């Protein structure tokens, strides 16, 4: 015979029991979560936080986060070493300018090896290792690595990183060349930069790179246009955004000195519209400028 | 040690179930099994998630500027123009470029961290001292920044661990192992007392 009261009691008991069981195993689950991979999560968390601070020009907070990432990684690599953990450690050490430690971390990461699906981490470690090589004076070797990444990586963040390093070293080398070779080299670089932009028209950083190279070539109108594009599309950090603003102002001043009165009049009208749109204090003072 | 840890959890689970469902022993196995397997599977999923979490490096700005940009930088700021008058007149771009690398982030980009670090020199317009001491002071400052003791916003539940159960988590590796353990303990406990 079915007794409704007894049935309800049983249902209540069943509900309580289930909750209790879930409680037990949830606790177990949390503890398990915290085991073999939590250290990587924490190190990644702090590293990512550091990069976030850097984007906003918060150097002090960024350095503290990178230190924390290294600390977390150092504690855990002893028992739970993984290539990704050494990669995060190495990247943080680069930010802290601990170059020798960073090199050791990347080499260790490669010795542990990356699995399928970790190609991004492998490329990032290669980039990190090249950065340490560059710091130790092996600029040509580093340049080859950056060029290699630039040519074959399908990952936009990787291409952006390699582009910055490759272009910076190449520009430095070009400026040391005598005039005809320098110009030839700069033309080669602008060709590469244009290809990058064609590949991803919406990447503000590639337009920024183009703007900088056009400036080396003395093509200020093109440099100005690319810098405006970069500003409109967005740049990866406050520092780069400010540098780009100063590039715009530099182009404005240079164009003022080289344009014919008619050309200048047309340009100034366009420029004034942008200045208004960006809420700059005046034609040569961006909103962030205090000096 | 590790096996006894798993056994202990199962035994405790059975004790609870015996009190709550003394008559529904058929529920013990599926309840314990599903709960433990859930706990076993989650770390695998979590591990996958953590390993696939991609972190990236912010690109830096391009450091290499044309001569014209550097000259404009020094000419544009009256204090800099006064201090580097000789170099500007003599078109000494080697010296100007070296000084530019240190002064541009401060005077041009107004980096807040560097502006704080070189506050006195900026106030007294002692640019040459900034150039001379820049590398060493920036390195030292970055080194001396301390790590905050408490980062409360970080997921606290991941923090405190019990080593005994932690070692157990590495022991629980397969469903069949869990199944066998539950079956063995159920048979031992229930068989002895209730059958």
Structure, explained:
- The complex is a heterodimer of chains A (291) and B (195).
- Chain A is an all-alpha fold and 291 residues long.
- Chain A has helices at residues 4-33, 38-55, 59-80, 83-95, 99-112, 119-135, 139-152, 156-175, 179-199, 204-216, 220-233, 238-258, 261-277.
- In chain A, helix 10 packs antiparallel against helix 11.
- Chain A is globular, with a radius of gyration of 27 Å.
- Chain B starts with a helix and ends with a helix.
- Chain B has a domain at 67-144.
- Mean pLDDT of chain B is 78; it is low at 150-172.
- Chain B has eleven helices and no strands.
- With 195 residues, chain B is mainly alpha-helical.
- In chain B, helix 1 (2-20) crosses helix 11 (175-194) and helix 6 (93-108) packs across helix 9 (127-144).
- The chains are: A mainly alpha (291), B mainly alpha (195).
- Chains A and B meet through helix 1, helix 2, helix 3, helix 4 and helix 6 of A and helix 1, helix 2, helix 3, helix 6 and helix 7 of B.
């Amino acid at each position: 015979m079915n007794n409704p009261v007894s049935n309800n009691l049983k249902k209540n008991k069943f509900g309580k029991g289930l909750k209790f069981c879930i409680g037990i195993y949830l606790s177990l689950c949390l503890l398990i979560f915290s085991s073999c991979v939590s250290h990587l999560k924490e190190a990644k968390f702090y590293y990512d936080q550091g990069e976030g601070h850097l984007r906003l020009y918060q150097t002090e907070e960024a350095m503290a986060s990178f230190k924390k990432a290294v600390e977390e990684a150092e504690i855990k690599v002893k028992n739970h070493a993984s290539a990704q953990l050494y990669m995060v450690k190495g990247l943080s050490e680069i930010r802290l300018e601990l170059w020798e430690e960073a090199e050791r971390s990347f080499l260790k990461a490669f010795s542990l090896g990356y699995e399928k699906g970790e190609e991004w981490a492998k490329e990032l470690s290669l980039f990190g290792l090249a950065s340490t090589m560059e710091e130790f004076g092996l600029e040509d070797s580093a340049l080859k690595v950056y060029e290699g990444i630039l040519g074959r990586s399908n990952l936009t963040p990787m291409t952006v990183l390699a582009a910055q390093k490759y272009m910076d070293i190449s520009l430095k080398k070009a400026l040391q060349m005598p005039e005809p070779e320098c110009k030839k080299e700069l033309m080669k670089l602008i060709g590469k930069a244009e290809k990058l932009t064609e590949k991803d028209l919406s990447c503000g950083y590639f337009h920024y790179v183009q703007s900088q190279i056009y400036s080396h070539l003395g093509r200020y109108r093109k440099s100005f246009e690319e810098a405006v594009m970069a500003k409109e599309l967005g740049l990866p950090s406050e520092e780069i955004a400010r540098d780009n603003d100063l590039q715009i102002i530099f182009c404005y001043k240079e164009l003022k000195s080289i344009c014919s009165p008619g050309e200048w009049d047309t340009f100034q009208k366009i420029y004034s519209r942008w200045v208004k749109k960006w809420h700059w204090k005046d034609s040569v003072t961006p909103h962030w400028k205090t000096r | 040690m590790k096996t006894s840890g798993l056994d202990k959890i199962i035994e405790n689970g059975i004790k609870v179930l015996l009190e709550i469902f003394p008559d529904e022993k058929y529920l013990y196995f599926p309840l314990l099994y599903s709960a433990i397997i859930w706990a076993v599977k989650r770390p695998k999923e979590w591990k996958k998630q953590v390993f696939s979490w991609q972190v990236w490096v912010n690109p830096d700005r391009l450091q290499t500027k044309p001569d014209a940009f550097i000259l404009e930088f020094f000419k544009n700021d009256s204090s800099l123009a006064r201090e580097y008058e000789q170099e500007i007149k003599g078109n000494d771009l080697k010296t100007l470029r070296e000084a530019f690398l240190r002064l541009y982030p401060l005077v041009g980009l107004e980096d807040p961290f560097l502006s704080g670090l070189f506050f006195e020199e900026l106030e007294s317009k002692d640019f040459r001292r900034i150039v001379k001491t820049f590398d060493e002071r920036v390195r030292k400052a970055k080194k001396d920044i301390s790590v905050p003791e408490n980062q409360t916003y970080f997921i606290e539940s991941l923090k405190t661990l019990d080593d005994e159960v932690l070692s157990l988590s590495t022991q629980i590796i397969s469903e069949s192992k869990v199944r066998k353990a539950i079956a063995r303990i159920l048979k031992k406990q229930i068989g002895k007392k209730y059958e």
